[in-house]
Amino acid sequence: MTQPLDDILVLDFSTLLPGPMATLMLAEAGAEVIKLERPGSGEDMRLTEPMIEGRSLGYAILNRGKKSIALDLKAEGAVASLRSLIEKADVIVEQFRPGVMERLGLGYDAVRTLNSKIIYCSITGYGQSGPKRDVAGHDMNYVGDAGVLSLSSGSVDSPTAPFGLIADIGGGTYPAIMNILLALRQRDKTEQGVHLDIAMSEGAFAFAYWAHAKGVIAGEPIENGGDRLTGGRARYRLYSASDGRQVAVGALEQKFWDAFCNVIDLPRHLRDDLADPAATKAEVARRIVVKPSAHWAPLLEAADCCCTIVKTPAEAAADPHFTARDTFGRVVSVGGEQVPALPLPIAPEFRGAVADSRAAPDLGEQNTEFGL
């Protein structure tokens, strides 16, 4: 089967999540991805739980189908030993703090003297320049600095952590993939490579486009958890049923809101949710909490009003809809077991066979293959 990236070689110096997920997507589209890992323990994700037969599931699902070289980049002659790979590589992905690759002799300027066509992608929290370029951080810090976390961070007494790794994946992985593919397309025209500066904190801004329009451009205040898309309106928020399960009400459009109000028999004088927002929210909550989620689920489904019961990850994976679409049909081998592979937003037409269950590599598994 021909794949879009089956002639692309990627050298992956990244660890943990943003870079490895990006190179996983490249591998799934046919690229040959070679991970460079430190000898002994390998990259940090290999040590994370849960595990099967001593193998990290997190590492396994993020590094499926890649190759691994164990190499101490600080050792004498280490960089020179990579010269032949660098000369024929198409893409390098690295995730160190700014300046680290330069100190190792693997910075962009050094690499492009060996390979002028290299697409060199650097993923960091704050970018290669600016006052915060060297500041340490994780996803929560980046979405906090981007103003996204302030939009829905819980109450003063009970702060709430972000529900997903918005900066890591949305600000790191996806921009990296998008710009690598754009750079490869540009290289087709110019035969020149480029250094891509991916800052996870900057990538997070796009996830709150409406907050940019309202809070930055219009200068209007945005209350924590109190805006149109963060629970401020009765028609777009979470409500608890009597069994503790939550109902996700997303009835923004009037026709959906009317249908939802009919399901719960909301009094007419409260259906204008802008007249007295607190009263409407309180009454909706009071009506939903008296019945279990099993009562509401079929009624809401029949009403087709953008209102659903919140699923656990395990329930979502077993949902007949995702089963019908074969969302979790791919598997990855971990030790002696096969587990569901991570669903990726790549069209099936560009990926390998569903039956392909390639495992993540053992540490240094390909050292001999590449003469190291």
UniProtKB/TrEMBL annotation:
Its EC number is 2.8.3.19. SUPFAM superfamilies: CoA-transferase family III (CaiB/BaiF). It comes from the Bacteria. It holds the Pfam family CoA_transf_3. Keywords: Plasmid, Transferase. Coiled coil: none annotated. One of its GO terms (molecular function) is transferase activity. It is an enzyme of class 2 (transferase). PANTHER family: ALPHA-METHYLACYL-COA RACEMASE, SUCCINYL-COA--D-CITRAMALATE COA-TRANSFERASE. This is Acetyl-CoA:oxalate CoA-transferase.
